[in-house]
Amino acid sequence: MLGLKLVLILLFCWEPLNALESDPELTSTYYQGDILNRGAKRRNGIGNEIFRWPNATVRYFIQPNVFDKAQLAHISEAMATIMNNSCITYVIAKEEELPLALNITGLNDGCNTEVLGYRKNAPNRINLQPHQIGKGCFRIGSIMHELLHSLGFEHQHVSQNRDEYVRIEWENIDKNQFTNFINEDDTTHWHNFGEAYDYNSVMHYLPMAFSKNGQPTIVALKKGNYDMGQRIKMTKSDIRKLNKMYKCHGYV
Fold this sequence. Notes:
Number of strands: 9
CATH superfamily: Collagenase (Catalytic Domain)
Number of domains: 1
Structural class: alpha/beta
CATH architecture: 3-Layer(aba) Sandwich
Strand order of the largest sheet: 3-2-4-6-5
Order of helices and strands: HEEHEEEEHEEEH
CATH class: Alpha Beta
Distance between the termini: 62 Å
Helix content: 10-25%
Number of helices: 4
CATH topology: Collagenase (Catalytic Domain)
Radius of gyration: 18 Å
Largest sheet: 5 strands, mixed
């Protein structure tokens, strides 16, 4: 009986670690695991309005012959969720709008975003490596995570006040990934739009992100961290920050 319990414990501990090692949002060669173009030092939400999508409208196109019907429906569902909770609108781009449109592709590995926010001089592109629905990049929260990057949000764990809420366990992080946790910029160009630190944000890292030994890299210092790193939904705070960023009705 004791042997059976030990096997069950090992299986329980082993499965999350395997899932963590293959998390497509944590590609070691990308900045913070899913951002291709690091650019300047970041914080949770972009403050400069030139990097916001004009008129809160994201013109987009989806790379053909990459996704199946179920995957396309899941992308549409993620967009609809954002639209239903903000003034953001997603519109299929016309041919002449393609150069500045958001290109949604799945030809590369992982879930990642080319740049944060809207850019006139860089590709506006996200990659969603095809997975079974509910897995990998096709968790609904993972799609919204990348869409929120493209709208101008970075990860929650690098917000300016993060040290009041989490402790970074540097000894558990691969030294080549330290840059993904650095928090030294004290400018006001990136901020939380008046919102409190949100452990459960769809933009928060998992507690063991980039762990080299299976031990936590992010430890919560306060209560309310029951779902850190979830990829199911936007929280109320995520929604409020998005509305404040784009000055949606009632949030100006």
